[in-house]
Amino acid sequence: MNLSWQAVVEKTVTGLGYEVVGCERSAGGLLRVFIDKPLVNGQEPEQPVNVEDCERVTRQLRYVMEVEEIDYQRLEVSTPGLDRPLNHAGDYARFTGHDAEITLREAFQGRKKYKGVLAAAEGVSDDALAASTNWRLIFSDGKTEQVLDFALDEVRSAKLVPEIVFRNRASGTATGAAAGKAAAKKNTGLAPGSESADGAAAKPKASKKKSNAKSRQTDDKVDGGLDQ
User: From 3.90.70.10, 3.10.28.10, 3.60.21.10, 3.30.300.70, which CATH number describes the 5-81 domain?
Assistant: First the structure.
């Protein structure tokens, strides 16, 4: 039995040592594939995806899809961009502590979109993050920090919020609010500034909000740069 085009893409990309962040077909036979490098021993890879990576994947995909007789007109392979989508638990686990924007399937307290710091749900250990279906977002309503607890099946879409960090040319150190926030939330899953006197991460003092959702592609293009 022939594999579906999605399965062919997934098998080919992962076989080359990358991961598929997303793939889609649009009118005119355009096939888009977004790739990234997986974590290395739990850490981000030293070098992000570049043009050479995208060219490598493009060449292999063209060959495999010809063998599998997959019909397409154009193929685009690129990075997912700074606003990388979060599609499954593994993505949420990888980017815990980063700014994210989620859109709920059903409105909660009159709104569907929330933006804040992505964190693990209470009681979920680090070892269980990659399989967790429950998460939380720490955000501000302009006055106080609040917590939105949600399940993955309540989310229509989710993505990272790009963070711009300015660097001092003389010292090479990060400056500005973004730098302070990044340092405060790194690997903590907590809101910025949530730290106890002895340096240990402390739980944020925030009112909790529970979601009310019910129990829940022949001219090829290569883009190795980050989409802005």
Answer: 3.30.300.70
Of 18-22, 26-30, 201-205, least confident by mean pLDDT is: 201-205
Bridge partners of 101, per DSSP, are 115, 159
**Angle formed at CA 205 by CA 200 and CA 208, multiple of 5 degrees:** 130
C-alpha dihedral sign at 186, 188, 189, 194: negative
Confirm if 224 and 51 have CB atoms less than 8 A apart. Answer: yes
Strands 30-36 and 219-223: unpaired
What's this model's pTM, rounded to 2 decimal places?
Answer: 0.71
Angle between helix axes 51-67 and 5-15 (nearest 10 degrees) is: 130
CB 159 within 8 A of CB 83: yes
Provide φ and ψ at 13, rounded to 5°: -65, -45
Element (H, E) at 150: strand 145-151
- For 29, other C-beta atoms within 10 Å of its C-beta total 13
